[in-house]
Known about the structure:
Chain B: Residues 33-379 form the Aminotransferase class I/classII large domain. Chain B: It is an enzyme of class 2 (transferase). The complex is a heterodimer of chains A (162) and B (385). Chain A is built from six helices and six strands. Chain A has helices spanning 3-13, 19-26, 30-42, 55-58, 79-86, 113-124; strands at 63-71, 92-97, 104-110, 130-137, 143-144, 147-148. The longest helix of chain A is centred in the N-terminal third of the chain and has 13 residues, at 30-42. Chain A is extended, with a radius of gyration of 21 Å. Chain B has helices at 11-14, 21-29, 48-59, 72-86, 101-113, 130-136, 156-161, 185-197, 254-267, 273-285, 287-311, 333-344, 370-384, and strands at 35-36, 96-99, 119-124, 140-145, 169-173, 201-205, 230-235, 248-251, 323-324, 346-347, 349-350, 362-365. In chain B, strand 5 (169-173), helix 8 (185-197) and strand 6 (201-205) form a beta-alpha-beta unit. The A-B interface holds A 10, 14, 17, 21, 23-27, 153, 155, 157-162 and B 19, 21, 24-25, 28-29, 34, 36, 38-41, 43, 45, 127-129, 177, 299-300, 302-303, 306-307, 347, 349, 370, 374.
Amino acid sequence: MDTQREVLDLLCENARVETADIARQLGVAEEEVAAAVDALEADGSVRGYQAVVDWEAVGEERVRAFVECNVTLDRETGYDDIAGRLVKFDEVRTLRLVSGDYDFALTVEGESMSAVSRFVSEQVAPVPEVTQTVTHFIMESYKEAGIEFGDGHDDDRLSVTP
Amino acid sequence: MSEDEPITVSERVRSVPPSGIRRFFELAEEMDDVVSLGVGEPDFTAPWRARQAAIESLERGQTSYTANRGKRELREAIAADCEARYGLDYDPDDEVLVTAGASEAIDLAFRALVDPGDTVAVAQPSYVSYVPGVVFADGEVLSVPTRAEDEFVLTPEALSSVGAEGADLLVMCYPNNPTGATMDREQLAEVAAFAREHDLVVLSDEIYSELTYEGEHTSIATLPGMRERTVVFNGFSKAYAMTGLRLGYALGPASAIGAMNRVHQYTMLSAPTTAQHAALTAIEECGDEVVEMRRQYDRRRQFVLARFEEMGIDCFEATGAFYVFPECPWDDTDAFAEALLDAESVAMVPGDAFGAGGEDHLRVSYATGFDDLRTAMDRIERFVE
């Protein structure tokens, strides 16, 4: 694996890891790591860095819904055109075109269930190409971005063993 | 024998002191917030599919003994896997024995192959069980220290220096616990030549074979003339992070494996059935997890080596297992390890706990999550300054 790819791997595990620590783990110079990160950002491979937050633990209510969205296309309007409109809304946290029974899968976030419902009915459903939406409110999050939200597994090893 | 103490412990057992590691374990256990670099087992958990296979076997009610030698299917899978990975060709019928951890296999070999008074050369520093195992089998231990300047590789010179020409068996472990040293084909060839010339049987503990970071692992049994005089030990503990499931195996000529099985069938009967189910799934389906764990260990290894270098602590480039073996910055390793534990709550094990050659060194295990590892290295740095 080349350095850039390995750097990407380590950033995916923990984006806050220090450049010097990446360099030590890969056995390369710090400058090489910094250059790799710059390149990844410059060419759009790395689009951003965010914390994975358990909002329940923070004591804040974040209402999120998973929205299935069906659309009809015509000669002038393709998926990208519709997506181009939907991504503009701050409430839309993720937007993906998917295979299967519906076309777009959205994650919508708002302050309350009514705020999310209102957003879907007033901003998504009225888009002319949208034929149907189905909203699933997220009731509990068990795993986000590969990180389990449970109490986890304590290290039950003895502190010193042969 | 006094009247109020009717039980007399055998001389054999009394002659074996408790493990040197034990004292540090007790010291570390008394403290809170210890970051331990003293752990000789993976920090990963066994792959979920392997655990699931164990659970499902219990749900199906598979709680009986298996064949003494282990489930036939598992022996076949082990033989096929060892052939594919290391070119070791063994017949699952009579050259493979599934045991309760590689440790049991090693004990069986001593009991099956050592006669009272036989000399067993033990390459050191080494895992702490070999010497007591030989003593329990009434053998004589010949300690063969390897040297820091040889990067703890076993050499014919090291063997000759203690008169290992006259030994009956040789125990070696590469990749090595506690040093992290590995041996390549050329280096093994020299030891193999010595063993052939002086008619030594080789017991090769290769439990860390999957954790080899530079180049491929070579088994000494694949060298010319060695298959017939070598018993290889391996298992699932390290590669698949399955230490607590206690599953290992031995590979060797039918005569040796048959003799070991004779002891095994009267003492263990068969390795834990649940663990055998987990192992079969591990070997068949969990190769990707092993690759990923190895990648993680390798990054930590390079991180730890880099940090020691920056601190000016001398540490040879360990290329296997999950240990590095730096030179102790103080003359008294025990005092250093205790002071470090006391001042910074970082536990590591003095090298002399692993026998001759380990003096003046410390075993540092990097089988610890990266964040803890970094914390530990920061604290060590602060301590040595």
